[in-house]
Amino acid sequence: MTRASLDKQPHEVASMFDDVAERYDLTNDVLSLGQDRRWRKEVAKAVDARPAQKILDLAAGTGTSSLPFARTGAYVVPCDFSQGMLRVGKRTHTWLPYTAGDATRLPFKDDVFDAVTISFGLRNVQDTDAALREMHRVTRPGGRIVICEFSHPTWTPFRTVYTEYLMRALPPVARTVSSNPDAYVYLAESIRAWPDQPALAERLKGAGWSKVAWRNLTGGVVALHRGFKES
């Protein structure tokens, strides 16, 4: 079984997600106490996909996150660099155009998508700034980005409890439901090491995004960041 290190070598991360693909959605539901469903609904609202729009869903995994966009009549492309995740998704949602791709070198032309979104995947990319620039490149002028990612709880006492849960409770729970519990030790560490909300907003601006803002969910356990590509 594979566990990636925090230097996020792409082959390590991809292999790790290949290992957990079969039970990934179930494991996320258990570990988040069902909150992941609410978070994904908020992502769908923020993206605000419309019929005939082109939506790029990065780190889409099995495609669960892509379904709300498809239901609006938008053309959604689920993209991930884990072949195992894509294979599992393709068995269930055969009509989705699953695409293998690295977020730092996207296999798409400039100015293609009306919106680009990534949920719980940006912190697993080796070069965050390169990925943000690539997302900017493939988004059409006037288009938007929505990032849903674990962040830093805003209330200090809760932040302490949350950190304890990540490092002590999450791995044992993962052992009961995941095919690769060691992967969730890495995921817990990567959440703890991730920049806070203002720091990620600055990185978005540095990659060329404008009108950058964020909104906290579940007290800052998760944050939704949004930005626009200037026309």
Automatic annotation (TrEMBL):
GO biological process: methylation
Cited InterPro entries: SAM-dependent_MTases_sf (IPR029063), UbiE/COQ5_MeTrFase (IPR004033), UbiE/COQ5_MeTrFase_CS (IPR023576)
Residue positions binding S-adenosyl-L-methionine: T62, D80, D102, A103, S119
Gene Ontology terms, MF aspect: demethylmenaquinone methyltransferase activity
EC primary class: transferase
NCBIfam families for this protein: MenG_MenH_UbiE (TIGR01934), PRK00216.1-2 (NF001241)
Protein name: Demethylmenaquinone methyltransferase
Name of the coding gene: menG
